[in-house]
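Appendix C: a fully annotated inverse folding record. The material below is reproduced so that readers can follow the format used throughout the book. The structure is listed first as tokens, followed by the designed sequence.
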């Protein structure tokens, strides 16, 4: 299963940024395309590195102004080349989806790059692996590979606390829960979109309201298909009224790796 080459599912000629791009420009591009990272290339399309939302959140800083006593979170005036990760993972276009997914799992990354003659040819992300899961109708129940325990935050908690939890807990998203029930998600894309809000803002005002809740026995291909059609990045897994896990594209890629 998942022996098809990555060339079938990869995105050709992916959008990239130059190393001299300012971080605000990178953040705007990520937000506009609803993607988590961008390759950094030179004028000849050679891959230099990758810059992600996590990189931007890592270098963001609290700034106090004379007009407002509350600190605000801002991106520094730096470039993609200064902040990007130079460690990228590349595979041949003939590499199988299973092998590529295994590399993602081993290296804890959400994408691999495909290079040809030292030029960036394409990119395969966890979203692409999810498409493969749908097409082969991989039927394993999601409780086998969901992430647990789930990290939660109350809707009244301040934005600054939510940002710190993302960093300190090393997670990409928090379930916003009220009386134990999910009412929203606060993920890296929400933290980046809220970069002009002060840290005292209640997380409920900046969270994502799209919450996809599924049971633990839902089949993987159905979960992946629903995530894709509803444009959500994670599923909150509930059983008997309790949150028991969270399923992300990375979890599904891991499932493809071991299928």
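Designed amino acids, in order:
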């Amino acid at each position: 299963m998942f022996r098809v080459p990555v060339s079938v599912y990869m995105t050709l000629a992916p959008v990239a940024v130059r190393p001299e791009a300012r971080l605000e420009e990178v953040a705007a591009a990520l937000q506009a395309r609803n993607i988590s990272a961008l390759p950094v290339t030179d004028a000849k399309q050679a891959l230099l590195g990758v810059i992600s939302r996590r990189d931007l959140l890592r270098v963001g800083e609290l700034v106090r102004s004379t007009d407002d006593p509350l600190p605000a979170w801002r991106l520094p005036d730096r470039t993609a080349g200064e902040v990007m990760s130079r460690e990228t993972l590349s595979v041949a276009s003939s590499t199988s989806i299973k092998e590529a997914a295994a590399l993602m799992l081993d290296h804890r990354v959400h994408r691999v790059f495909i290079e040809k003659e030292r030029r960036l040819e394409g990119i395969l992300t966890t979203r692409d692996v999810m498409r493969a899961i749908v097409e082969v109708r991989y039927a394993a129940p999601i409780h086998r590979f969901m992430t647990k325990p789930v990290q939660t935050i109350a809707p009244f908690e301040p934005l600054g606390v939510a940002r710190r939890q993302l960093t300190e807990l090393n997670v990409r998203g928090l379930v916003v829960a009220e009386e134990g029930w999910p009412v929203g998600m606060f993920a890296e894309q929400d933290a980046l979109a809220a970069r002009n809000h002060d840290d005292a803002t209640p997380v409920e005002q900046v969270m994502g309201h799209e919450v996809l809740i599924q049971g633990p026995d839902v089949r993987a291909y159905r979960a992946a298909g629903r995530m894709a059609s509803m444009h959500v990045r994670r599923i909150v897994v509930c059983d008997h009224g309790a949150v028991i896990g969270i399923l992300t594209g990375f979890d599904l890629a891991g499932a493809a790796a071991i299928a």
